[in-house]
Design a protein that fits this description.
The chain has 400 residues and is α/β, with parallel strands linked by helices. The chain contains twelve helices and twelve strands. The strands form three sheets. A five-stranded parallel sheet has the order 2-1-3-4-5, sandwiched between helices. Strands 7-9-10-12-11 form a five-stranded mixed sheet, with helices on one face. A two-stranded antiparallel ribbon has the order 6-8. The two termini are 42 Å apart. The protein binds adenosine-5'-triphosphate and magnesium ion (MG). The site of magnesium ion has 5 residues, from α9.
Length: 400
């Protein structure tokens, strides 16, 4: 069903470490000018420089283009055939406060510049301008959008970490009390089980109740793990020893329809992490893969060393340059649509039916990776499968 050649043979670096908007989306420019020839030549120049352009010649078309294409920057002519560019910039800023507007005027005048800046324009250019000036100004605009995006993400990430921490404490507390309630239920049901053996229909009801208690106990123990993930000592782990052990356990746990394999690179470095959290994380990833392959498939674990250079795209996603070990969990399951992939790390986000998924697995694995100084990357395509890369920093050499 699935051709996973791409996902298998790719370098580990083609995954996405979720961190925000697609870079292509940030290079989109809306050109608003009633002079169609001028707008077309400007668009041609910008396209050559790698920008994506949308042109509009009047305010209503420009406003609907802003809504549908969401450009990061708008180049607006001060005089439009029907309507006024300064008014349009005001309307743009209301419609999309993060949009950066550059006003284009036919003549240099302080009044026009002041009016444009007061309307919310970021800067202005006087016609005729040199293409070098336009490109330098645009670069500044996009640098600004990048910085704004970084600031927004940092604040979002902090909020999310605080939410996860608060939720960890809350779930840990509830799970603990609930576990005690389940323990009472379990003890009583076991007693009943022994005493109703003579009455099969009652015995069957008690068995069903015991099954439900077991499901409840599984859930509470996962919630307890989630709440408990801070703390504990880190240990230097050799993955060439730990991963084969884990695969043995998984072979017993996973469905026989899943073909499990492990590929370790030579000279694998050690990592320094919480051992129980590493195990729980890999188990969570394996269970996600199993759920994505109800009719069976291939589940492959890979591990290799990675020296991340400062110019690597993953550094921009928040992974500091340095030495890592990457553990990849690759399945041939149903994969994730982009909208699911974007939200997959959110705590409590799950696409599984009620009772089948609590949406804590990936968020817990992501928390573990970050806490260990690494990151989690996702590469997934609907109907083609999923590859999760767990980047863990190499243990300090004195330990290996
Ligand atoms: N290997 C995968 N293939 C396809 N989709 C996946 C995979 N891993 C995760 N997902 C998607 O991401 C969502 C979130 O995953 P996560 O592990 O956080 O929660 P869950 O598996 O739904 O619940 P829980 O792990 O708490 O039982 C899943 O519901 C699923 O839609
Ligand atoms: Mg899961």
């Amino acid at each position: 069903m699935t051709d996973l050649t791409d996902l298998h043979s790719d370098l580990v670096g083609d995954d996405v470490i979720p961190h925000g908007t697609d870079p292509a989306e940030r290079k989109r420019v809306l050109i608003v000018d009633d002079d169609e020839d001028f707008a077309a030549s400007l668009a041609g120049l910008l396209e050559l420089e790698g920008y994506q352009t949308i042109t509009a010649h009047d305010p209503p078309t420009a406003q609907s283009a802003l809504a549908s294409c969401q450009p990061a920057v708008a180049l607006v002519d001060v005089r439009l055939g029907i309507g006024n560019g300064v008014e349009l910039v005001r309307a743009f800023r209301q419609q999309s406060p993060d949009l950066i507007c550059l006003m284009v005027t036919a003549y240099a005048s302080v009044e026009t510049a002041v009016e444009a800046l007061q309307a919310g324009a970021y800067d202005y250019l006087c016609k005729p301008f040199h293409s070098a000036d336009l490109l330098a100004t645009l670069e500044r605009c996009f640098e600004r959008t990048r910085l704004m995006e970084e600031k927004r993400l940092a604040a979002e990430r902090l909020g999310q970490m605080q939410r996860i921490e608060a939720m960890g404490q809350l779930t840990g507390g509830i799970a603990h009390d609930f576990n005690n309630i389940l323990a009472v239920l379990l003890a009583n049901l076991r007693w009943l089980q022994e005493h109703v053996q003579a009455e099969p229909h009652l015995a069957e009801m008690v068995d069903d109740a015991l099954e439900a208690v077991k499901a409840g106990t599984d859930l509470t123990s996962r919630l307890l793990n989630f709440g408990r993930r801070e703390g504990g000592d880190t240990v230097c782990i050799r993955l060439d020893e730990a991963l084969p052990d884990l695969i043995r356990v998984l072979r017993r746990t996973l469905d026989g329809k899943i073909d499990l394999s492990l590929q370790l690179a030579d000279g694998l470095h050690a990592v320094e992490v919480h051992p129980a959290q590493l195990e729980t994380s890999l188990l969570n990833l394996a269970l996600n893969a199993r759920d994505a392959m109800p009719d069976g498939g291939t589940l492959r674990f890979e591990a290799c060393n990675l020296a991340l250079r400062p110019d690597d795209a993953r550094v921009a996603s928040g992974l500091p340059p340095g030495q890592y070990v990457v553990i990849s969990v690759i399945d041939t399951g149903h994969g994730m649509p982009a909208a699911v992939q974007r939200r997959a790390l959110e705590p409590l986000f799950s696409t599984k039916p009620a009772g089948k998924g609590s949406g804590l697995g990936l968020s817990m694995v992501d928390g573990f990776a970050r806490q260990s100084g690494g990151r989690l990357g996702i590469s997934s395509k609907p109907d083609e499968g999923t590859r999760i890369n767990l980047y863990l920093p190499r243990a300090p050499q004195s330990l290996t």
